[in-house]
Amino acid sequence: MKPAPFVYHRPASLPDALALLERYGAEGRVLAGGQSLVPALNMRLATPGALIDINRIPGLDEIRLGAEGLVLGALARLDAVERSPLVAAHAPLIAQALPHVAHLAVRTRSTVGGGIAHADPAAELPACLVALGGTVRALSRRGSREIGAAEFFRGVCTTALGPGEVLTAVVVPRLAPGWRSRFDELARRHGDYALVALAAHARVADGTLAEARLVLAGVGATPVRAARAEAALAGRRMDAAALDAAARALAEELDPPSDVHASAALRRHLAGVLLRRAVRGLLEA
Amino acid sequence: MSTPPPVHERESYIGQSVVRPQTARLLAGRGVYTDDVRLPRMTHVAFLRSPHAHARIRALDVTAARALPGVVAVVTGEEIARVCDGWVGTLAHFAGMKSAKQFPLALGRATWQGEPVAAVVAETRALAEDGVASVRVEWEPLPAVTDAETALDPATPVIHPELGDNLAFALDVVAGDVARAFAEADLVVRETFLTGRHTGVTLEPRTILADFDPAERRLTVYHSFQAPHMMQDILARHLRLPEHDVRVICKDVGGSFGIKVHIYPDEMATCALAVLLGRPVKFVADRLESFQSDIHARDHRVTAELAVRRDGTFVGMRLDDLTGIGPYSVYPRTSAVEGNQIARLAPGVYKLRDYAAAVRVVLQNKTPMCQYRAVGHPIAFAVMEGMVDLAARELGLDPVEVRRRNLITADMYPCTAPTGYFFERLSHEEALDKILEMSEYARLCEERDRLRARRVYRGLGLCMFIELTTPGPAFYGIGGARISSQDGCTLKLEPTGKVVCLTGVTEQGQGTDTIIAQVVATALGVRLEDVRVLTGDTMVTPYGGGTWASRGAGIGGEAALLSGKALRQGILRVAAAILACEPEDLDLRASRIVDALTGEVRLDLPELGRIAYFRPDTLPKDFQAELAVTRHYVPRHQGFAFTNGVQLSHVEVDVETGFVRLLKHWVVEDCGRIINPRLVDEQLRGAIVQGIGAALWEHCVYDAEGQLLTGTMMDYLVPLAAETPEIVVGHVETPTAYSEGGFKGAGEAGTAGAPGAVLNAVNDALAPLAARVTTQPITPEVVLRALGKLP
Amino acid sequence: MDTTVAIELAVNGTPVGRRVEPRLCLADFLRYDLELTGTHVGCEHGVCGACTVRVDGALVRACLMLAVQADGCRVETIEGVSGTGEVSDLQQAFAEANALQCGFCTPGMLLTAHEILQREPGADPARIRLALSGNYCRCTGYQAIVDAVHRVGGARGRETR
């Protein structure tokens, strides 16, 4: 279980990295934390001709509160993000989600940029970013652009990043008054990929969820926004009937995959359980 | 120098939780596992493995691979078969058993996904894998036999046409008159239990390093293995080398659990390659290979019927077991043992006399199955104890009371079970009483009932069990396998007064070497720190079976005890010659020769050693010192030394998600005289967690084409710290009277009872919802389906 | 074509310079190039924790990091922390509790346990179980490990008070 041979580059700057990406085209892969890429290399599921290691590019590991919101640099390690008071204060959803991501010795290397760009549909961070209405900053030789999280994830491990483009940061809008977050997931064991995860972000007013953004992981090819369930919740008094209606709406709008870990029916059922728990949690918080 | 105070008591280390001396090395990262051994001109082998469950090899093109830099050789099945003879995994005492001849690398056809097909030897493992990637194979996929239930149907292809059908072995165990018993019963309960395929996942993968010296034609093999002498014998016979020119050395072994006691084609190929190339060849299974090629176990469907009277008395039982074992029965222990043991163990705790069991062992195109920790036990007792709880529920009786009514009681020993097993003396009643008290069972029952009103679903599950330990020759030897049922122990008093101990049993983390040292030190009368134990080298240790089937303490321990006593006599004779008295006047205590009556110190061992080895001229002319002895032991009076115990699992089921949370687990176990309580406790805890893993998480899942879907540690879920419960251990001690030490085994009891306890606990939790589960692993899917929440 | 890369790093305080293939992972580099065989390899896909080491003070999976990435870094292995005595209390507690059997998980377990106690000295057994759940042990059933770590956590707490 050793990787196929590749050449290795460690650019010292973003322009150098972009030049290498252009040079290698489809043969080049960006190496950030490596916690998903290196297993794929070891198993020879990925056999790139060149790795472009961006870990030594200065300035990419920032965790900063700016005018645009909370900026998490591509190389911010999940362990640092998890422990950041800024994240706890301004993106509590992410702070709640990160302890579920694998294990400590993985989170010390795993990066925000890698976690987003890898776009595993069962991963926690992409679901959080979509729920929070975040954006992805990408840079290429053509310039930089911002991509809304909802548009960024295109399919299983497929994103809107184009050839020669590298993710430099994600931006999470500042937490607006009245908004609460709740992250919950069901995994067979602590640290495993979730069978289903729910990133819930909602504005609570008068004992109701005035607005809700519900994004699920593990139930589709990308993080899945549960628009019908959100609509069923919005502004309603949450009695048993309303909860049932929201859970029904969710079950109808989800089309989860079946795999060795869970059938589609199980995932649909568990999503409903998580929805009920999230609603109760958000209202009680 | 002051005179030492008299030494009166001979210190006994038996029953003491001494710290294992070799842990210091392991804790410092200074263990030497097989992959840590590096030899001059060493090469590495990687195998091309079949991507298909069943396929013909139309063409194999190795030219590109041979041309790669760093590649030393690319070898096919036909080339290997020229230096390594094939094997057939059958035993004579399993009447009618059949299996096909197997070779190190597939010949013309692959019969499971992962079967080795070609070998690439290179200067590094990475280069060898580059070579594997360059081998071109033209495959012709053949229909795969994957479902054991239809393996014998006429429409199903026969995997090995020369065998006639896919039936490897069938067994009927019949005792008493089952038909009459069922006719007389008030109630018959019937249930089908499914146990998922699982595997051992030793953290250190299988590893072997073979070094052949063409000048002397001697083969030295470093092997992560449990039975070095067995491997020596098999390598010699199949590679056509004189046995004394084959040496097998087992250094530190990173877990085994019955995985590392079988003959694997890739390991045989590695040794054959060393012979072919005249260079050391190392093979380390990577984790993907481990899942496809380590033996699997437990894939059984058991249907059971229990006939009972209204008062809960069992009157008869029927059991039907079907298992699919892969395309070959594994050499040399065969793949029939698990089914055989399920059939014979299941009723073993109870007074059942009328019993019938049928076992069918069929071939299929999946990874071969064979013996893994607690062979058959976890299935036998999950089924039996599941049936007991089911009967109790149907009759409206207390499950504890139903057990009491049927247990083999203290006054009945010795006795022979209807399935042929002999029980010298077991302690079911005492163990049951103890676990109920230890766990505050009555209080937990009350709490469970109280919480149900709040829709918190907790359950308690008991599982009584027996464990087969200390096997004699009836296990394998009688069937023609050259697997030693005896073990030897050599002890030498060195000139320094220290003791070297060589034993045929082996160490894979259990602490075998520690308990052997404890027995030796006690039998001899020396301090524990004066004993050094060496295991796992066929050139050095006395011939023995190794460590498996919980035989280390019962057999190795007894040999050590006998050897210790013999060396003690030898030492006392020398001391008497030196001191000009009679050996009977002297004693050996705490490494000193003392006056037997007064305890006064007469001589220390370094002085005795000095005289015996360097100044024997000072001793009488007709006296010859003998300071090395070997003694052997084989269980002669019973086929196995059975042990017994009971486990209790406490769980909470989340009936919304189907997730099971383990709250706590108890075990009371009787392994005879305990040599080291802490080591026994830790054997039990580790084994219980292995059983819990099977009950809740572990599963080798295949698709209908025979593709393994759980081939990584992300898909095959082993138990980790967060989900495993606190485990409370209690003991009853019933020594065997057939050996002087009274030791029996303890390695598998935990695994034997844990799945049944968890299964019963989950069903207890689900009882108020009229739901039952009978499938392991008990996944959320299984629970929710039982609750009617999933289709 | 020579695709090897020159790296210089400090391993257990000793400066080391080598040329390595880019595809060589840090675990194999430590084991085969430096013969520091205390770092074990159990899965090569980041799940089992046997290869856990410290790089620039951070706990990492050495099977998921390339040796070239450790260029210029400070790497510490079980051999290093044993030599400095940094984990001697944990080692002693593991021995006394028999918190290891085959010993293959032990180096990674010790490094992880040490990090847990650095971060959360008063961690209770439930927290310790969560934090250790990235380290697989097939032998012990974990309880003795958790007990040993908990005991050391308590003792370290008393010392620093």
Give a topology summary.
The complex is a heterotrimer of chains A (285), B (791) and C (161).
Chain A: E1 7-9, H1 14-24, E2 28-31, H2 37-42, E3 50-53, E4 63-66, E5 69-73, H3 78-82, H4 85-90, H5 92-97, H6 104-107, H7 112-118, H8 124-131, E6 135-140, E7 143-148, H9 149-152, E8 153-155, E9 158-159, E10 166-172, E11 179-186, E12 196-205, E13 208-217, E14 224-225, H10 227-233, H11 240-253, H12 264-284
Parallel strand pairs in A: 1-3, 2-3
Antiparallel strand pairs in A: 4-5, 5-10, 6-7, 6-10, 8-9, 11-12, 12-13, 13-14
Helix pairs in contact in A: 10-11, 11-12
Chain B: H1 23-27, E1 43-49, E2 55-61, H2 63-66, E3 71-76, H3 77-81, E4 109-110, E5 116-122, H4 125-134, E6 136-141, E7 167-175, H5 178-184, E8 187-195, E9 198-199, E10 207-213, E11 218-223, H6 228-238, E12 246-249, H7 265-277, E13 281-284, H8 287-293, E14 296-297, E15 300-308, E16 314-324, H9 337-345, E17 355-362, H10 377-395, H11 399-406, E18 415-416, E19 422-423, H12 428-438, H13 441-452, E20 457-469, E21 487-493, E22 499-503, H14 512-524, E23 531-535, H15 552-579, E24 586-589, E25 592-595, E26 601-604, H16 605-614, E27 628-633, E28 641-653, E29 660-670, H17 677-696, E30 726-731, H18 749-766, E31 775-776, H19 780-786
Parallel strand pairs in B: 1-13, 8-31, 11-12, 16-17, 22-23, 29-30
Antiparallel strand pairs in B: 1-5, 2-4, 2-6, 3-5, 7-17, 8-15, 9-14, 10-11, 10-13, 15-16, 18-19, 20-28, 21-22, 21-27, 24-25, 25-26, 28-29
Helix pairs in contact in B: 9-10, 10-18, 14-15, 17-18
Chain C: E1 5-11, E2 14-20, H1 26-33, E3 52-55, E4 58-61, E5 74-76, H2 78-84, H3 88-97, H4 106-119, H5 125-131, H6 143-160
Parallel strand pairs in C: 1-5
Antiparallel strand pairs in C: 1-2, 3-4, 3-5
